[in-house]
Amino acid sequence: MTRLGLVFLGMVLLFLYTPILVLMAMGFNASPLYELPFEFSTRWYSDLMGNESLLTAGFNSIVLALITSVLATAIGTLAALALSRRHFRGRSLLQLLLLPPIAIPWLITGTAMLIFFFWTGIGRGMHALVIGHVALAVPYVVLVVGTGLQTVRADLEEAAMSLGSTPIHAFFAITLPLLFPSILGAALFAFAVSLDQFVVSYFLSSPGYVTLPVQIYSAIRKGFTPEINAISTLLLLGSMTVILIFARFARPGAPK
Amino acid sequence: MANFTRRDTMRMLTAALAAGAAGSFPARAQGGKITVLNWQGYGTDEAWALEAFMAATGIEVVHDYFSSEAETLTKLRTNPGAYDVVLLNSARVSTAASEGLIAPADLSKVPNAANISPDLLANPNFSIDGQGYAVPWVWGMTSIAVREGIAKPASYKDLASEAYAGRFAMNDDAMIAVALGALTTGQDLNDPADMEAVKEALKALKPNVKMLWSSEDQWNKSFAAGEFDVSIFWSGGSVRSRRNANLPVDFVVPAEGAVVWVDGLAMAAGAPNPDGAAAFINWMIDPAFYVEWATKVGAPASANAQALAGLPADDLSAQVHKAEFMVSKNVMSAMPDERREAFNAAWQEVKAFYAE
Amino acid sequence: MALRGPVGPRRLPDWMATTALLLPAYAWLTLAVFLPLLTMFVFSFLNKTPMGQAPVEFTLRHYRAFIDQPYLLGVAWNTLMMGVWTTLICAVLGFLAALALVRCSFGRSREMLLVLILLPFWTNGLVRVFSWTMVLRENGFLDSLWHLVGDGSVGFLYSRPAIILGLVHGYLPYMILTCYIALVTIDDAVIEAAQSLGARWWTVLGSILIPLALPGLISGAVLTFVPVIGSFMEPRILGGPVGMTLGTVIEDQFTQAFNWPLGASLSFTLLAVVLAIFATFSGVLRRGTAGAS
Fold it and tell me: Out of A33, A115, A220, whose CB is closest to B215?
């Protein structure tokens, strides 16, 4: 059974990584049009080093994704606690209200934000991007943390509280450690939502503050070159390292 | 932030070097900054041109990009006072002007406008009540691109031929699609009387349509991968594909003629730096800039007759953009919203038919 | 808000605590999403995009699009099917993968695997989808592999299966993650007890594992189905001529046709369909919630 499961996991990973491997390989292919046969070249990496607009955009994307991840995880977790632990009228409505940001194509949300931010004087730029990205990531956080909360038994908290601990203390002593994997998953999610978000960013970025997907998206007429593959590869390897270091040193709730 | 400072320093160094080399330019030390709104990679953001412009005038050029023409107007409306120069298809100039998004063109500050072909300058699409609102910059065509060694279609009707089964790529653009259907059926491309015939002509292409492309980049990559042989494509794009990407592609204008478009440069209403904007527009229609752009990169045809004359006769841009193709009845013009909506609905219906 | 919450030794009144927990998220969503969308909702009743100087009128015309343009019904059906297939495939693969993670891996290797599953998200979606075209096209990577054993081409770029493949790839990690979170707390003892009592594997699967994973399957299905039926990038790039979906129609209204009212009315119709589907399945949803607690 165990072997069968691992073989299946291996196949799923192969499927998930097929385009990623192609992406990485094509970053080392000489043709700017991604033509085959494969011809090895490090040209795109050296071009990338001289491409300040792409590097700046990549840097902006990471900073924005970090800010989004922290803010969205914080306020989303609070909302998830209320939605799955407390009973009050209007709960189902509030849960349904999480769907529009996911259900309505980002193109429309983005256009709507642009108009609304213009009318209210919020304008465009980094602050507008933070507002928009956090809003898009919050529903994901609530859903992921909410799923986790359903499997953390509420009676443990009740028990702690009946033994005299305050709700806040019970939360930090019991719920948070049990919930940690979900919260971490939600944070990674929010990070990814922000990092890959291009439609909303496209409308809210200003000429002076551009993110990587926006840079790629506006380049579609001019053409994206394998420099994009190079920077994607570096980003991927960078985040892999960070996550692995993180997983190495901070592993609360690691099962068994 | 250190990045910006370093980049600025670099730019000033380059500018200083270029200024030494370019003594012949009329040096008007204006300084300041202008913001240009255009497609990415469409002439105005060529690094060499901006360096030379900076060296000559001291003006720094910043870009913001759009990815569709409709969006140009949205960006102008929601960012008043942010832009100085904006690129507009002639078909969109009257909308922008009537909404007060662009300022009347002051040709006295654009000396090179004197050389613009009179036909284009007088084109009604660029003016309202005789007042011009944009300076014609370049014109180009949308017609057929064929892979070398494949039979060239003599008429748009041939695109439905079995010879191209599964080897044809169409431009996913409602205005272009309907215009092509109109040309195929011998109608006015700006106002086809028989829309049913247009739709039928487009639907007849179904067995041949392999893909729908929406950006030049996508076109290049798919063509390079051999996904199709015949396509609706842009004239300037075909030059860039052949010259810069070495793709074996020829641009063909069949008997019915091409869909012609004219792009103009306009000054945004409330431009923070109107003099800088005028200077930049003048720079862009200067023969010196155009010849370098057309021969180094690949460009549509300049509206400036002198600039066109400056191209070497064997240049690919010159060969593709023959003056005889510039037929005024084939130029895409301004149209009422209802008709634009009808064009969109027709193309949508055809695409739904392809997807069945 | 009236409250029926459990009574415990709390310092704050219940309703205040609930409000304090909810306020940041919903205030943020109101400012950044609901108010802008409300504006857009008003726009959907206008006869034209209200950004020019010409006067606008109120009309219900755009909500009649499915009647006036009947071919849109076919497009809507294809879109719905695309959503159903993608969600089903994701659910089966995601559940099994999460199960394999929980049952067959431990400690650090499990964390490694989980990280590896989530990492593809860290790459740009456009580039990821473009990479698929290189795999799937004729004489692409898939064909190169195939040519080791056979002739001809097995590439299927520009087809519906290609779109589904791209979408499954994009959303499978969501499903794995949500199922994993739901399954990770299962006590091995429960399964062993069931087996020692003679339960066969399908009984264990049907009466223990699937009910336990249900909250995860449901959130995963929401996170997959909802964005998939609004997607436009994957269908456009991988579908070619068959890639027309409601998402691409809506996108066209905003980027090409500049018909915001029509684009907005189509997306609110889409949202209504999504909400109707969730209302229909809310019974299942409630049972799922009950089964887990």
Answer: A220
